[in-house]
Amino acid sequence: MDSNEVNKLLAGLLGTVFVVFSVGLVSDALFASPAPEKPGFEIVAAEPAEGGAAAPAVESKPIADLLQTANAEAGAAVFKKCQACHSGEKGGPNKVGPDLWDLVDRPVAEHEGFAYSAGMKEFSKGGTEKWTYDNINHFITSPKKFVKGTAMGFAGLPKDEDRANVIAYLRTLSDNPKPLPTPGAAADASAPAKPADGAAPAKPADGAAAPAKPAAPAAPAPAPAPAQ
């Protein structure tokens, strides 16, 4: 290979390097994205401080009050969501969950032939805990929050009306439906009794001793007579 061919190869290599370097400079100039001198706005997601107070929970109405206007027929439609896991007829079979015939006031975790979870057995307190209207209401609101360790996978019924209707329907699944709870009974029992408007204060019973009157002040002793 003579010197002319070597020179040509070197010239071609240098030319290629020059072209690549030039293309890189032009690309950097065209597609550069410098940071703005003044940012437009910053989005900051507010997160609760660790250990801070939780947001207050929305208080639902007592089930005793809700049941006064509940509709059992509407509850039967809601109960269709439960029929994949529960039967509701007398002597019905246990499915994924136990049969719910005569559920109200039934001891918790005591239905024959069903294998309850450890969490439900602990909640039952040895069979002393019952499925009262309140317990049913709290449980179907959020099963896993109310009974820790329950195997029930249902998320719950967040609407007061739906829970009241389905509980009213469950009440009818019995030969002897349990009486409805008295609305406001629990709150009234703890409140002190107030006299009716315009009523006079209570008088002491007949024969009760009247309050003792204060004794009259004793008269001052007479001054001694002067000696003669």
Measured by DSSP, the beta-strand proportion falls in under 5%
Mean pLDDT: 77
Amino- and carboxy-terminal Cα gap: 173 Å
Structural class by SSE content: mainly alpha
List the helices and strands and how they pair.
Elements: H1 3-30, H2 63-66, H3 72-79, H4 118-124, H5 133-141, H6 143-146, H7 160-172, H8 185-190
Helix pairs in contact: 3-7
Brief synopsis:
The protein contains eight helices and no strands. The protein is mostly helical and 228 residues long. It has a domain at 63-172: Cytochrome Bc1 Complex, Chain D, domain 2.
Task: Describe this protein with a few key phrases.
228 residues, mainly alpha, Cytochrome Bc1 Complex, Chain D, domain 2, 8 helices, 0% strand, rod-shaped
Description:
- The protein is mainly alpha-helical and 228 residues long.
- The protein has a domain at 63-172: Orthogonal Bundle (Cytochrome Bc1 Complex, Chain D, domain 2).
- It contains 8 helices and no strands.
- The chain has helices spanning 3-30, 63-66, 72-79, 118-124, 133-141, 143-146, 160-172, 185-190.
- α3 packs across α7.
- The longest helix has 28 residues, at 3-30.
- It is rod-shaped and about 115 Å long.
